[in-house]
Amino acid sequence: MNLHVAMVARTLNVRHLRGTGRYVQEILRNVTPADEVRWTAYAHDPALPFRVPEPLLGRAELFEFRGDRFHLWEQIGLPLKLRQSGAQILHCGENTAPVWQPIPTIVTIHDTVPWSDETHGVQHVYMHDVQRLALRRCAHVITISESSRRDIVARWPFLADRLTVISHGIADDFFSDERGPLPDSLLQALGGAPYLLYLGGAQARKRFDWAVELLARSGREDLHLVGCGFGAGTAPLDRIPPELRARVHIAPFLEDGELVSLYRGAQAAIYPTLYEGFGFPAVEAQAAGTPVLFSPVSSLVDLVGPLAWTNEPQDFDGWLSSLQAILAMPAAVRAERAAAGMRWARGFSWRRSVEKHLEVYREVLARSRRR
Predict the structure, then answer these.
(1) How confident is the model over 261-285, as a mean pLDDT?
(2) Considering the chain, what is the average pLDDT of its residues?
(3) CATH fourth-level superfamily of 3-169+350-365
(4) CA–CA separation, 143 vs 360, rounded Å?
(5) Would the CA dihedral through 343, 230, 11, 278 be positive or negative?
(6) Which of 98, 141, 166, 312 has an alpha carbon within 20 to 30 A of 328's alpha carbon?
(7) Distance of CA 153 to the CA centre of its chain
(8) What are the boundaries of each domain within the chain?
(9) pLDDT at 175 over 80
(10) Res 254: pLDDT
(11) CA 257/CA 26 separation, integer angstroms
């Protein structure tokens, strides 16, 4: 059965992809002609790149709609487009959806952080009132982990019987033997020194300070720390002790090939986050053959593979002990665990994720036709 799906893809209409954009991109990319699916991917800003995969089975459309501050693109502009599009299903893959739904609508809620963070004014009303109404009208909801499913049902019990968990995959780049070159500025700053890789950015729950303290107490004066995931001007450089500033480096946004190289070159990946809907770095590090330290909290409980060292969030001594064990690991043992971690990470398949998404699409369409 041929299926025409409209996909909200504003997280691809950016200078640099983040986690949600990667999800949307991989769903679009991993559909094959045999699936008999045609996409229309929508976004809103012609001034920015639109990073849809090429070739795309379908088309991409950028359109502006006045009043984006009040979310009118999503709430009015998008539904108007859908009425003319011929699409049979709308997939909003970026946490929010329109209230007016001229065709059956599916939304992916990655986690409940946008509703937990403190908001005010228009944004508070939009997230807590408008989106509650939109969710009531959605035909189905997808989420990305059992942890997120529990959080969603706790917040919106009425979604329990139309909620499906579909895990993310890991990009093929992480299993490739090819490496992209690192930016010259980062290579020069490191000067060949061994390094730890922090992933997460500046949000408080990501705990960049924790990674800096691990570096400070590692007992290795030759060891550096590379931080990834920071938006322009958001890295808290003023919180780095003066004696460590020459050994802490903030990476620019990296393409996947560059990021894989950064993972593979690291002594360990440090991922001290307190909450994630999925937690890409916990799997990506293991896919790249690099040991990773994190706490078994929220969705990360399900991401403990052969290359993971886990400790409770506030057990700094445990974290430090794990880091020292990794740094002291014999090369042969490290290689053996790296191979096991890479095999384990292959269980996270974007193609399998897409197949489950297509099952949801077709079931929602069939259900709408029975009404």
Answers:
(1) 94
(2) 93
(3) Glycogen Phosphorylase B; (3.40.50.2000)
(4) 12
(5) positive
(6) 312
(7) 21
(8) 3-169+350-365, 172-345
(9) yes
(10) 82
(11) 15
